[in-house]
Amino acid sequence: MEQTFAIIKPDAVERNLIGKILERIEAEGFRIASMKRVLLTLPIAEGFYHVHKERPFFKDLTKSMCEGPVILMVLEKEGAIKAWRKLMGATNPAEADEGTLRKEFAVSLEKNSVHGSDAPETAVFEISYFFSQTEIIP
Ligand code: GDP
């Protein structure tokens, strides 16, 4: 069973959307193999988004990820990585398809409510960045 890494970002947690987003995740047949609510520090957010270090939006992005608690999850499903990206929708909510989480909940390109790994190697890095082996329940 494939695993992917997901975040409910501060903008969505702040607007009390955790329950609505989890409902969609479960309805789409994902198993939540692990989940926790944490407040990221700037160095942790910078390490997580290190691939975007040279991007002009790096500072804004990392700061916004620390503005309130986030929900971190390991999701499991056949083809979980692609399936979760599909459920999230396009990065920019203005371009996201009907029925996607970003279309429904995101407020802007930066405050786009959810994160998901974009490839198998990324999923391995992102899961291990936040979860130890013993926290992922088979
Ligand atoms: P994702 O994989 O769909 O999350 O998109 P990316 O990996 O390209 O970007 C990571 C995150 O950076 C996005 O989810 C947005 O929150 C943020 N982001 C992307 N592009 C921009 C931008 O042009 N400006 C700002 N402020 N944030 C951006």
Descriptive overview:
- Helices cover 39% and strands 19% of the residues.
- It has 138 residues and is α+β, with helices and mostly antiparallel strands.
- The chain has a 4-stranded antiparallel β-sheet.
- The protein is globular and about 35 Å long.
- It binds guanosine-5'-diphosphate.
- Residues 57, 60-61, 91, 109-110, 112, 115, 118 line the site of guanosine-5'-diphosphate (GDP).
- Guanosine-5'-diphosphate binds next to helix 4.
- Beta-strand percentage range: 15-25%
Shape by Cα distribution: globular
The radius of gyration is: 14 Å
- Summarize the amount of helix as a percent range: 25-40%
* Unreliable residue stretches: none
What ligands can be seen in this structure?
A: guanosine-5'-diphosphate
Overall SS class: alpha+beta
In round numbers, the mean pLDDT is 98
Largest sheet, order of strands side by side? 2-3-1-4
Report on the biggest sheet: 4 strands, antiparallel
Number of beta-strand segments: 4
Calculate the terminal CA-CA distance, rounded to whole Å.
10 Å
Q: Give me the strand/helix succession.
A: EHHEHHEHHEH
Q: Please work out how many helical segments DSSP would assign.
A: 7
